[in-house]
Amino acid sequence: MRTLIQFSRGNTSKQAHRDLPDLRDEELTRDGFDGREAVLYRRNDPTTFRTTGRFRATSALLNEVKPSDLTDAQGSAQRLYHNTDATIWLSRRAEPMPFFRRNVDGDECWFVHRGSGRVETEFGPLTFEPGDYVVIPKAITHRWVVESGESSLLGIETVGELRAPTYVGLGRHAPFDPDVIRVPEPAAEESTEAEYEIRVKYDGEYSSLFVDHHPCDVEGWKGDYFPFAFNIRDWNVIMSDSLHLPPSMHVFLVAEGINIINLLPRPFESVSGVERIPWYHRNADYDEIALIHGGNSLGRPLKAGLISHDPQGIHHGFPERARVKARREWDDHTRIEWEIIMIEAKRPLKLDPVLHQPPTG
Ligand SMILES: [Fe+2]
């Protein structure tokens, strides 16, 4: 809901996130970053606190999580987070799948953090490389063929149908031109084996189908339902020169209760007095997951492979020292070079035990 009703009380800046008084600005927002909101001007860093119980930010390094598919070609991805709308998986497959898969529980969107190869689908093969999203809609038979020796793939499985949001006022070619979507060319395969296994995920359980022909035997396809790939290099970042825009400007795909967002390299805001570093915030209606794919901020490399979870309503954001540095080194940096994949989840996410950290409170 957007409303022109707004009040300001006490010590504030005339424009949000610009020409701050000597205070810390924090956004408290509804509906992601698209609803009602308040900016609070605080004396202290709101992200400095001790906690007990489940309400806490957590993080993990993907290369310290070891799914069974890392060492066993017959193995599977590791579940990391889940709610009733979505499941977030990690696959580190090092060898081609010796079987085919079909997920009839939902759509799958895999972000390729590391690794390359191809996904063989009924529609034809799709190559993949770091920075790709590979989207495999519900019920499509496919097989991952990793060619790089090891991979690191973050999977977002959604119960609802994944689709591009409506970008109001941006035209046909922003934030991405549909021409950059890669779709498979049909490549019907000869049957060389007596039997092929298709592992079907249905209601959270796997069954195996066995067919006497290669599952990829399609000579042609048409329609608006297909697997595809998209690389983040082809994303056109929408920005303002005078205001740090919120993640809701950078949504790639949505499904019921889920937003998938790209935070990618771009020029810094250049108008004097603007806060360049994302403000402290509380995303009151969405849990946030952020995967650092790579890049740097203010000349310092970001920790690639770090995945973090911030429950809805928790204070989080870059540390105060990054804000101070951004103001002090204003003339030294003209761009922010981050590559961050963010997932917003409307319903609270549960963490799998591999991610549990001992309470510090
Ligand atoms: Fe956030």
Structural features, described:
The chain is an all-beta fold and 361 residues long. It folds into 2 domains: 144 residues, Jelly Rolls (Sandwich); 165 residues, Jelly Rolls (Sandwich). Helix content is 2%, strand content 36%. The protein is built from 1 helix and 26 strands. The strands form 7 sheets. It has a 7-stranded antiparallel beta sheet, with no helix packed on it. A hairpin with a 2-residue loop joins strand 21 and strand 22. The protein is elongated and about 75 Å long.
Produce a short descriptive summary.
With 361 residues, the protein is an all-beta fold.
Q: What labels would you give this structure?
A:
26 strands, 6-stranded antiparallel β-sheet, Jelly Rolls, 36% strand, 2 domains, binds fe (ii) ion, 361 residues, 7-stranded antiparallel β-sheet, single chain, mainly beta
Percent helix, as a range, is under 10%
Which CATH top level class of the largest domain fits?
Mainly Beta
Number of strands: 26
Query: What radius of gyration results from the CA coordinates?
Result: 22 Å
Assign the CATH architecture of the largest domain.
Sandwich
Largest sheet: spatial strand order: 15-10-7-12-5-4-26
In CATH, what is the homologous superfamily of the largest domain?
Jelly Rolls
- Specify the overall morphology: elongated
Bin the strand percentage. 35-45%
Oligomeric state of shown chains: single chain
Distance between the termini: 37 Å
In DSSP terms (H or I, runs of 4 or more residues), the helix count works out at 1
Small ligands present: fe (ii) ion
CATH topology of the largest domain: Jelly Rolls
Task: Estimate nothing, just give the exact number of structural domains.
Answer: 2
Spans of at least 5 consecutive residues whose pLDDT stays below 50 are none
Q: Major beta sheet, specifics?
A: 7 strands, antiparallel
The ordered string of helix (H) and strand (E) elements is EEEEEEEEEEEEEEEEEEEEEEEHEEE
Mean pLDDT: 95
Structural class: mainly beta
